[in-house]
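It is worth pausing here to work through a concrete case rather than discussing structure prediction in the abstract. The textbook approach is simple: state the sequence, then state the predicted structure, then interpret. We follow exactly that order.
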Amino acid sequence: MGNLKHTISAILAVSLVGSLAAIQATDLTSVKANKLTQETETVQAPAPAVLTGDGEGETADFSIAAPALQVFVGKDAYILTSGGSINLRAAADTESTILDVLSVGTQVKILDVDEDWFKVEAGEYTGYVKSDFITLDYSKVQSVLLNTVMYQSGTVTQSINVRAEADENSVILAQAGEGSSVTVLEQSGDWLKVYFGENYDIGYVSSQYVTIGDMVSRKDVNTARSEQIAKVAKNAKIKTNNSAVEVKLIPDENGETLTTLANNANCKIISGGTNWTKIIVSATNEIGYVKSENVSVITAEPIKTAFPSFTKKTTTDSGKKGSICRTGSFSKRLITCFAGGKIYRNKICLRRSFSVRL
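Step two, the predicted structure:
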């Protein structure tokens, strides 16, 4: 009879663990199941909002009765919210001391259960967090991170076309060679929206030819992109005989018009081609394309340097300011001597009194 009870208990425990796993299971791709659309590109993407607290206003991972939470004890788990952070408190009480603030994806070790709180070990601290914001399923954490603060790295497995839109009939922007790196911004179905090339251009590639790698910080990637664009961008002006020039979202006459620019409007050229040139619209910082014939780089005028006129004469100088001299002993170049040994035209008057011959 005792053995039967133990057997029943074991079956219930397995069933409970299986139920919890089913509750936490998720499909990462469902988050991005919506169709990709071409969006306005800007030099710097805005930072996502960050929330901090004990879970108020957040989306909980799950809600399970306290006794069932015992199966989590002793396991490694992760902080999971809809994009904010959770307070690690000294006691299972929202009024207790805040020991630390744990962001999404922080790994913790579950030590015990106190009603709807977990006692956890997080780095150098041991404290309490609401149980609703703990998960064992890292794929859920990854899904939230990719929607808020992270991108994914990728490697091209064979040469492929990079297109302007998520469509095999869209304009080809460039080709990505085998082994080249991309940064995956979004994924949906068979298409990936990526940064590619040294200037972090935006395009779309077939997902079947890209191997997905580690997650990378959106902030770091966008900062590097902005710095690179600032380095290569050249001041330019729009030139047209018409009233205005259309700035396209993609290099295609049938593409969506981002804005229009009048003749002599300021912009910056990122890269150019025979037909289309990629520019930054100075007024809005948006990136788009104009016909190459309608934009030109501003050529800086050469800097004119004024040099003093020199008159040949014979003189004996005692270091007076503005004197014209040539020394026979230590210099063969025409110089202007200043009292006190000041520098002019890369030479120094080393002597305060000397005779010269011109």
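Step three, interpretation. Confidence is low (pLDDT under 50) at residues 1-38, 45-52, 56-65, 309-358. The longest strand covers residues 107-114.
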